[in-house]
Amino acid sequence: MKRLICCVMLSCCSMQLIAQEQKSELRLAEEAYARQEYALAGSLYTRVVKSKRNRTPVELVIKLANCHREVGHFSEAAEWYAQVVQRPDCPASAFFSYGEILRNLELYDSAKVQYTRFSTSQPDSLALKEAAMQGCDSAVVWKQHAVKLSHLNGLKELNTPYSEWISGVVKQGLLIVSNGYRRMLLNDGAESNPVTDKRTFQPYYNAYVYQQYAQGNATMYLEEMLPQLIGKYNYHIGPACFSSAEDTLYVTVNEQEKPEVRQKKGFVQGNRRLLLYYSVKKENAWSPLEILPGINLAGFSSSHPVLSMDGDVLYFVSDRPGGLGQTDLWYSEKQADSTWGKPVNCGPRINTVAAETFPTFNEEGALYFSSKGYAGMGGYDIYRATGSKATWETPENLQLPFNSGADDMGFILKRNGYEGYFASNRTGGMGSDDVYHFIDPAFFTGNSRNYPPRDGGLTPGKGTDLTGGITPGKPGEKETGGAVPGKGTDLAGGTPGGGKVLTPTEKEHIHELEKLRFLYDFNSATLLPESRKILDYASTILKQHPDWKLVVLSYTDSRGKDDYNLDLSALRCYAVIDYLASKGIPAKRMYYRNLGEQFLVNDCKDGVPCTEAQQRQNRRSELKIIY
């Protein structure tokens, strides 16, 4: 898919070349490079380099490699850097750049060779070299001990051959930034020929909302975010965030300074600046977008807004003076008159000599952000840190599977604490940046990461016999209904009837719990009021028997694809576990089995006409006791 995009870009480049064939290719390439039009410049430099061959000045080959790097073609960039580092006139910086590209491609041993060849006396460059070398070593270890999530997939509903990522959560759904939706027929109509960014020959980014109604239907759809307010800007829009009441919008708008005239090179593109705008909703109407007072600084960028959970602190990204690196995380506190105070740097625990960006917060107030300055796997890695303002604990690299050698960013952890999203341009995606969806309650426990035993089961043997022991399984083995700890704690308990003599009261309690069945609306994992009453009763009994363990079994009706139904039944398990945990049942006592459309209670199989009442009987959760 990325090769297809590359071909389209080259076709666009060829059209521009024909229109300007009276100029030399080298001059055109230099002008395009100065304008930051890297896709066009790369095509032109390729022709120049191929025509000059070994006589090509090394700086031109470096520019060609850099063009490929800027548009995300890492393999092509590596090919040209490989030629550069063989040259006797290779500058020292090229070794570091080549190492970075090799790290993007997860060729860590080769990357270390190039980092070793890079020599410098600059403290910041030395710090980056040391972090890169450590990152290569760490990445090798992390790959050897990578934890597999029970669910991690590219979100096909959102991804296009272009670029998408998530910037936040609203009541309606997810805030999406994309340059692939402009041609789609959304609420404001499709653009048959959207304006493109000349750097990449891809459409400009815009902001969207992705909605999913949990109850009553399976409708999922995209809509442009506030089209009457955002409109059709000529440059990038997003990311954005809303206040908790969703009556104030903060959004990043890309603006470009006027082109400069440089002798012999014509017009040179002015610097691009990212500015923060805001709008307030009053009486169901949004005010026009205005520059956010007190935050933006002339001549520098301010972007990626995100609010603290209480809404009193605005965090953002900026390259302004006073920072530690290329771009830093900054914050501003809301004043008594609701204005924003003077921006303050988040400090050296968060910021590095490189770039930090894409900040988000989870429900507990933990900060997630992406950085190139720590000892990571390559490109932007996602980190987690606790604290606030300028006081933070040491950030933690999320490692695999959330990070890769490519750029990983936009980490969103949902309120349930074990499901979320992130974006990456790693190999295997549909386009440039793809959105990935993950679910795994055994990996996340509240605010901390947890590495559960990945080979743990409850009893020996295999199978899916619901009348006897629970089968062993790993979190990824959804097809066999593998049992998984509810919140990531291993269980070394017994099986039903495992030698213990039950009292009549215990037998009665087990019988009462295991005959319970609670139902769901179509395509929903939301507990109904009557289900909550059943679980209240179940929690009362479970508290009387603290040595008992609980397995939650959840099912769907036969409608929908098998994989989707397995995931939906997992969400129903999670809903039960979460509710019982809120009632004081320790998570370490709870396991689940998501069985999808297996074990229907009636004949409503695929293709069999059934009433909605009959289908509803299959959408259920049940309980099984282990003592």
Secondary-structure map:
Elements: H1 2-19, H2 25-34, H3 38-52, H4 58-70, H5 74-84, H6 92-104, H7 108-117, H8 123-144, E1 151-154, E2 164-170, E3 173-178, E4 196-197, E5 202-203, E6 206-212, E7 220-224, H9 227-230, E8 237-242, E9 248-256, E10 260-262, E11 266-268, E12 272-282, E13 285-286, E14 290-291, E15 302-307, E16 313-318, E17 328-333, E18 344-345, E19 356-361, E20 367-371, E21 381-385, E22 387-388, E23 391-392, E24 396-397, E25 408-413, E26 419-424, E27 434-439, E28 444-445, E29 448-449, E30 484-485, H10 504-514, E31 517-519, H11 529-544, E32 549-554, H12 562-582, E33 590-594, H13 612-616, E34 620-626
Parallel strand pairs: 32-33
Antiparallel strand pairs: 1-27, 2-3, 3-6, 4-5, 6-7, 8-9, 9-12, 10-11, 12-13, 12-14, 15-16, 16-17, 17-18, 19-20, 20-21, 21-24, 22-23, 25-26, 26-27, 28-29, 30-33, 31-34, 32-34
Brief sketch in words of this structure:
By secondary structure, the protein is α+β, with helices and mostly antiparallel strands.
Could you explain the architecture of this structure?
The longest helix is centred in the N-terminal third of the chain and has 22 residues, at 123-144. This protein folds into three domains: 2-144, Tetratricopeptide repeat domain (Serine Threonine Protein Phosphatase 5, Tetratricopeptide repeat, Alpha Horseshoe), CATH 1.25.40.10; 151-449, Neuraminidase (6 Propeller); 478-626, 2-Layer Sandwich (60s Ribosomal Protein L30, Chain: A), CATH 3.30.1330. Strands 8, 9, 12, 13 and 14 form a five-stranded antiparallel β-sheet that branches. Helix 3 (38-52) packs antiparallel against helix 4 (58-70) and helix 4 runs antiparallel to helix 5. The protein is α+β, with helices and mostly antiparallel strands and 627 residues long. Helix content is 27%, strand content 25%. The protein contains 13 helices and 34 strands. A hairpin with a 5-residue loop joins strand 15 (302-307) and strand 16 (313-318).
